[in-house]
Amino acid sequence: MKELSQIALAVEPSTTMAIDSMFKQMKAEGLNVIGFGAGEPDFPTPDYIKEAGIHAIKNNETKYTPAAGTIELRKAICQRLKEDCGVEYEHTQVAVSNGAKPCVYVALRALVNPGDEVILPAPYWVSYIELIRMVGGVPVVVNASEAEQFKITPEKLAAAITPKTKCMILNNPSNPTGMMYSREELQALANICVEKDIYVISDEIYYRLVYDNKEFVSLPSLGEEIKERTLLINGVSKSYAMTGWRIGYVAANPKIAKVIANFLSHSTGSPCTISQKASSVALSASQDSIEAMRVAFEERRNYMVERMNQIEGVSCIKPEGAFYVMMNIEKLIGKEMFGTVIRDADDFGNLFLKYGKVAVVPGTGFAAPNFVRWSYATSMENIKEGLDRLEKFLAGQAV
Predict the structure, then answer these.
(1) How much is the CA Rg of the chain, to the nearest whole Å?
(2) Does 380 lie in the same domain as 357?
């Protein structure tokens, strides 16, 4: 038989899946394990959004829609972006797909030729680097340390740009770090991108989950020159607790938007009609229930950060958005626990699940091998119990 695609063979499986599989197996066996790996809100989708989906089914709104999404939804997206982010698009500049991840992929497809370089700030969401490789791009990883608040500087960005650079992926607020760029920091990066004429795929999926009254700034709102070079990624999954509804979108200049719409028409086709109807209502109705979820996340974050920094051997900085905390385990590297020497976050994660009965996400898949990611998209009860178990585990006590 002929060989398979070299591009497909080079794609690595998600490094988070091993612990997740082990966690699910232990839970299925009846063990009392707690998971902090979920990248989705633990809240149910608000009732008014669910009702919109039910109404769509009962009203026989179950046929194909335009490949780029319904006009109703795209107009609702434009209105929400204008109100929340101060950035204006025509509905023809928006393409909707089956979640934000396919939107990142199709954005890369629209921009990247084989051999083009794509700058990727690290720590990064695990899928970004594989998506770059899947389109034949060359990832150029730019590391940002905890001391730098996990944010790259304009100097680091400029140093990474070569004649082969086509674009950068910027996730703001960030998964996995939860950190967010200020207006001044973002403007400095935007200036470099305009000067060097590179595109930015700006993933702003967590933009509604921002804390401490911080100002979220959408990259394309900083001026026409950077807006022309920005492919804005967003969706309803995180802010509206609609992960399973699978609706994301990309907004871009008219030329890029048309290329993306053409690509979608020959690949995924239109997203789920019922999900589009529900998303239209989510975006256009009152946002009060969304704010209630944000407030709950902020309370959980405050507890997790304060408590974690009181535990000997680990630490964390306070995230400004999303629902993740990156726990620093540098003091544990090289230490023997439960008969195993901890070399990196993978070792820690395996041991913590086995002996502490807690699942966290190792930072190795995020290019942060001395960190593990905790999600606080779970109940306060689970957070308290999980941190209790962390203290016992670090004291050498199995749960």
Answers:
(1) 21
(2) yes
332 within domain boundaries? yes
**49 in a structural domain:** no
Q: Per-residue pLDDT tens for 177-222?
A: 999 999 999 999 999 999 999 999 999 999 999 999 999 999 999 9
pTM exceeding the 0.90 threshold for the entire prediction = yes
Q: How far apart are CA 167 and CA 145, in angstroms?
A: 22
Say if residue 263 is in the same domain as residue 343: no
- 165 bridge partner residues: 117
Range of the domain at 296: 6-44+289-394
CATH code at position 25: 3.90.1150.10
User: Which three-class secondary structure state does DSSP give residue 52?
Assistant: helix
The pLDDT assigned to 16 comes to 66
pLDDT in tens, 43-54: 999 999 999 999
For residues 290 and 394, give the distance between their C-alpha atoms in angstroms, rounded to a whole number.
Answer: 37
**Residue 272 in tokens:** 């789920």
- Count CB-CB contacts under 10 A for residue 395: 10
DSSP-derived 3-state class of residue 376: coil
Instruction: Scan for tokens 């990064």, then name that residue.
Output: 124
Q: Is the bond preceding residue 254 a cis peptide, omega within 30 degrees?
A: no
